[in-house]
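Protocol check, entry for the methods section draft. Step 1: assemble the input record (protein sequence plus ligand SMILES). Step 2: submit for complex structure prediction. Step 3: store the structure tokens unaltered in the notebook. Ligand used here: nicotinamide-adenine-dinucleotide. Step 1 record:
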Amino acid sequence: MTSKYLVTGGAGFIGSHVVELMLRRGHAVVVLDNFSTGKRENLEQVRADVRGGELTVVEGSVTSPSDVERAAAGCRGVVHLAALPSVVRSVEEPVESHEHNVTGTVVVLDRARRNGMKVVYAGSSSAYGDQDAAYKSEDLREMPLSPYAASKLAGELYCRSFARVYGMPIVVTRFFNVFGPRQTPDSPYSGVVAAFCFALLRGKAPRIDGDGLQSRDFTYVADVARGVLLALETTTSGCETVNLACAGNHTINDLLRVLREYAGSTLQPVHAPPRNGDVMHSRADISRIRALLGFQPEVTFDEGLRKTYDWYRRTYR
Ligand SMILES: NC(=O)c1ccc[n+]([C@@H]2O[C@H](COP(=O)([O-])OP(=O)(O)OC[C@H]3O[C@@H](n4cnc5c(N)ncnc54)[C@H](O)[C@@H]3O)[C@@H](O)[C@H]2O)c1
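Step 3, stored output:
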């Protein structure tokens, strides 16, 4: 059955892939975005790739109840991705981070409960902080280390409270280091895969914060979009929290080695001091999302990096 869905932050990196998959499946999509980090080109690219899809773009903020009300009209569910997704920026501007990430979430949840919409909330692996567990499972105690992590976790707590108080179905999907085409590569807040691809293509030394032995569960964006749609379309009740990841484990040094091979580059990295609020190791236990939604990652680290590097080469050469 096709439906109409709202995607907040739909002009962003992950949002544009969620929108694309929804349109490919025949759903009508409304994007609400203030274009602070998102780009119109992302949606133009999606429109060009998926001809005939029904896509409406509302420019506005999730912090504005009237903008959210306008965008949500007639929508059956919402994927709430709009946020300022940067640890570094949150350390510099914690109040701004709170406003977009927490207040914005409460406004979206409030509209969803008034309209009877299902909610999928973009949670973050940053909720776990640095803990000894080899795999981060959802029943670990949360330990946010940065204002960003605290803001994303505060959004989750609101999701739990709204599900309990109003009986709303909500799925919190905790993303782990998402990478792929359309991630902004040239901002001080860029994700590491995008930043490395861009540096290698420009012949500049990639910058590694710390010794590069930090490890991450890098997850290809198409897998994330599939997981989000499963969360939206599967019947659930109350608030479910699931990791959405690959369950892999690669260091930043590994990542750079593979990308340098693809790029045929011998550029040596420069090392900067470790980042304030960064976690050392992050790897997901994905048994809960497998059991609840039947999710299985499909794109391996190497395959995802190859697709991503090729996209940056085509786009920024
Ligand atoms: N990229 C990752 O690895 C990762 C990991 C964990 C969680 N997340 C979460 O996934 C979501 C999407 O992240 P992304 O990587 O695609 O980042 P992004 O910056 O590309 O996307 C965020 C989008 O939200 C929009 N936005 C910001 N504030 C807004 C507001 N007040 N009103 C309307 N739109 C607003 C931006 O313009 C942008 O289009 C975020 O909630 C982020 O916290 C991302």
